[in-house]
Amino acid sequence: MNNPAQRSYGTLARNAFRGPVRNGFDLSLEKTTNITERVQTQFRAEFFNIFNLTEFSNPSTSITSGTFSQVSSTADPRIIQLALRLMF
Fold first, then answer.
1. Is residue 5 part of a domain?
2. Which of the two residues, 83 and 54, has the higher pLDDT score?
3. Do β-strands 40-48 and 27-34 pair in parallel, antiparallel, or remain unpaired?
4. Is 17 domain-assigned?
5. 39 and 86 Cβ atoms separated by less than 8 Å
6. Is the pLDDT confidence value at 42 over 90?
7. Biggest distance spanned by C-alpha atoms of the chain
8. Does a structural domain hold residue 14?
9. Which residue would you say has higher pLDDT here, 6 or 83?
């Protein structure tokens, strides 16, 4: 009979480490205006990470790295994108 403890490193379960929680709140606003019967304009504003919350990335998992288990980066800050479209 094989002993599984001989082929494992410690007693920690698989996928026991979890990274920080990421909450993304995005918002999109759109306004369409008729100029004539066949011509319209559309204005669109898109906000990514609208509350500008810090979203930390996962920690380093490389055991040989000097930054092992350290969080050294974050996700993008608030991004705003505007668009104007002419439809005919």
1. no
2. 83
3. antiparallel
4. no
5. yes
6. yes
7. 82
8. no
9. 83
State the CB neighbour count (10 A cutoff) for residue 53: 14
Rounded to an integer, what distance in angstroms lies between the CA atom of residue 31 and that of residue 77? Answer: 25
Residue 6 lies in a domain: no
User: Tokens at residue 51, please?
Assistant: 């509350």
Distances (CA, A) of 48 to 30, 38, 60: 15, 32, 26
Whether this prediction's pTM lies above 0.90 is answered by no
Tokens, residue 43: 């204005």
Structure tokens at 24: 């993304």
Tell me which residue range forms the domain holding 45.
23-87
Residues found in the chain: 88
Strand locations in the chain (E) = 27-34, 40-48, 79-87
Based on the structure, what is the number of domains in the chain?
1
